[in-house]
Design goal:
Number of strands: 0
Organism: Sphingomonas lacunae
Protein name: TetR/AcrR family transcriptional regulator
CATH topology of the largest domain: Tetracycline Repressor, domain 2
Largest sheet: none
Number of helices: 9
Oligomer: single chain
Pfam family, one: TetR_C_33
Distance between the termini: 61 Å
Keywords: DNA-binding, Transcription, Transcription regulation
GO molecular function: DNA-binding transcription factor activity; transcription cis-regulatory region binding
Structural class: mainly alpha
């Protein structure tokens, strides 16, 4: 232990390293992450983080694992109801809310150079959990066997929904909405409108164009 360094319990040191790694990534990007920098910022010897993380990729994999876990929890959070279509909309809104409220985690999940999954298989457990939530929601809507003969059709629909949500969030995270000078009402309302349109494309709703009368059923109200 170097002069001035305070001995930490093992669990505290591990958590401190992870929190500092997240801060480094948030402030300077993944490329700035190193175990030496983590050690310097939390005030321990440069060898101390190696007690818990054999390499930079190991601590990055843990940060990513937690991000995926948070994402999966966010998608599971909306309560299930008897209306599978409304539940799918709630899942979509949970996706958008997570992406905007947890930008670092979302960027790590979808925008970063991840460690080798074969070397860090636990890193992607949350990703598979999140995808399973989406597939389950679609299976309920269509009354399909998501793990049997309907597996491929469900995956096709899941890819469509996922890509639609990702595109929506990507647009919202830029200055594009300001650039095209949308009204405040449109900026506020278009995410829900876009999700409702996804329902139309899936053939599970009849949401009208703005100004038209709403249908009596499956309008996501």
């Amino acid at each position: 232990m170097r002069p001035g360094e305070t001995k930490r319990p093992a669990g505290d040191l591990r958590e401190a390293c992870i929190r500092e790694a997240e801060l480094i990534i948030a402030q300077s990007g993944i490329e700035s992450l190193s175990l030496r920098e983590v050690a310097r910022r939390i005030g321990v010897s440069h060898q101390a983080p190696y007690r818990h993380f054999p390499s930079r990729d190991h601590i990055l994999a843990e940060v990513v694992r937690r991000a995926f876990g948070e994402f999966a929890e966010a998608l599971r959070a909306p309560p299930h109801t008897e209306d599978a279509t409304a539940d799918l909309l709630a899942l979509g809104m949970a996706y958008v809310t997570f992406a905007l409220a947890r930008p670092l985690q979302y960027r790590l999940i979808f925008g970063g150079a991840l460690p080798d999954p074969e070397q860090h298989p636990e890193m992607l457990h949350g990703a598979r959990d999140a995808y399973a939530v989406l597939r389950t929601g679609l299976g309920r809507v269509f009354g399909m066997d998501q793990d049997g003969r309907d597996r491929d059709p469900i995956d096709m629909e899941a890819m469509f929904v996922w890509s639609s949500l990702h595109g929506l969030v990507s647009l919202m995270r830029t200055d594009a909405l300001e650039t095209v000078q949308l009204s405040a009402e449109t900026r506020q309302g278009f995410p829900l409108h876009a999700l409702r349109r996804v329902g139309v494309a899936l053939g599970i709703s009849q949401y009208p164009f703005p100004g038209q009368d709403s249908p009596k059923r499956h309008d996501y109200e």
